[in-house]
């Protein structure tokens, strides 16, 4: 048991060193901002596309904030994955019971369903052409598909 | 092992409760920093990504590289400020040495561009 604990302590120390240097790079879905961030939300690199600046100061602030959040979440998830790899899934689940769900788990089992950014487009509906009941065959040949 | 985990979880819950009661009274802990000319202002959370980044219209003249560098500089400062404020807020309920070890270092001097209320 003592040896197992010693192994775990060493694994934890190694993990702490790994996590301190874990970063992830994420590009905003609009392609105008790229951020490298640590799991603690530190911005290690930031690239702004010139076109982003043309969208005005408010857009720049919001897009950068959102991209840093996405990169931080990705880095936290990578940290969880490294931890699960180093300590085993059982230990990772224990840590989640203390520290809270990993971003991946929170995203896939959200408390509230995520709201789609874009309003879902309504399904295209085309009214069906009314069936024409016309005993007159001439009328059929004049309008073979029932169009009016 | 399970006992250890259970004990750790219980300790975390106890500290969490003490912290959340404290924070409920004092409000959420954030840090703030601005460029000297007000080009960039960042509201940061301790140990997390920035909550808000504000860019002034004139800051856009810095160009993409200059503005990116300034956002990084101000964000780092805001996060240090948030960590320091968290340390000050929690040192009465959590051992200050543990806070420092977690990376929430108390700043000695908060200059004029640091947190302002």
UniProtKB/TrEMBL annotation, chain A:
Residues 105-148 are annotated as: Disordered. The keyword DNA-binding applies. It holds the Pfam family YbaB_DNA_bd. The keyword Transferase does not apply. It comes from the Bacteria. GO terms for molecular function: DNA binding. InterPro entries: YbaB-like_sf, YbaB/EbfC. This is YbaB/EbfC DNA-binding family protein. The lineage of its organism: Bacteria, Bacillati, Actinomycetota, Actinomycetes, Pseudonocardiales.
UniProtKB/TrEMBL annotation, chain B:
Signal peptide: none annotated. InterPro entries: YbaB-like_sf, YbaB/EbfC. Residues 1-16 have a biased composition (Basic and acidic residues). Residues 1-49 are annotated as: Disordered. This is YbaB/EbfC DNA-binding family protein. It comes from Lentzea atacamensis.
């Amino acid at each position: 048991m003592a040896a197992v604990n010693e192994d775990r302590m060493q694994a934890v120390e190694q993990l702490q060193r790994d996590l301190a240097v874990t970063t992830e790079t994420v590009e905003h879905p609009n392609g105008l901002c790229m951020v490298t961030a640590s799991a603690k939300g530190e911005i290690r690199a930031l690239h702004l596309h010139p076109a982003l600046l043309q969208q005005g100061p408010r857009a720049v602030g919001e897009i950068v904030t959102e991209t840093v959040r996405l990169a931080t979440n990705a880095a936290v998830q990578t940290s969880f994955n490294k931890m699960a790899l180093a300590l085993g899934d059982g230990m990772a689940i224990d840590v989640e019971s203390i520290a809270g769900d990993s971003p991946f788990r929170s995203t896939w089992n959200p408390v509230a369903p995520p709201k789609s950014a874009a309003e879902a487009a309504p399904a295209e509906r085309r009214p069906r052409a009314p069936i024409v009941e016309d005993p007159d065959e001439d009328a059929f040949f004049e309008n073979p598909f029932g169009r009016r | 092992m399970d006992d250890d985990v259970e004990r750790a979880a219980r300790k975390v819950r106890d500290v969490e409760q003490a912290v959340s009661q404290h924070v409920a009274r004092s409000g959420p802990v954030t840090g703030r920093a601005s460029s000297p000319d007000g080009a960039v202002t960042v509201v940061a959370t301790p140990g997390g990504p920035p909550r808000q980044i504000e860019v002034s219209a004139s800051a856009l003249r810095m160009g993409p590289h200059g503005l990116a560098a300034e956002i990084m500089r101000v964000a780092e400062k805001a996060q240090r400020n948030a960590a320091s404020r968290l340390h000050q807020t929690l040192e009465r309920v959590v051992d200050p040495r543990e806070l420092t070890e977690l990376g929430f270092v108390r700043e000695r001097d908060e200059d004029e561009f640091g947190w302002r209320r």
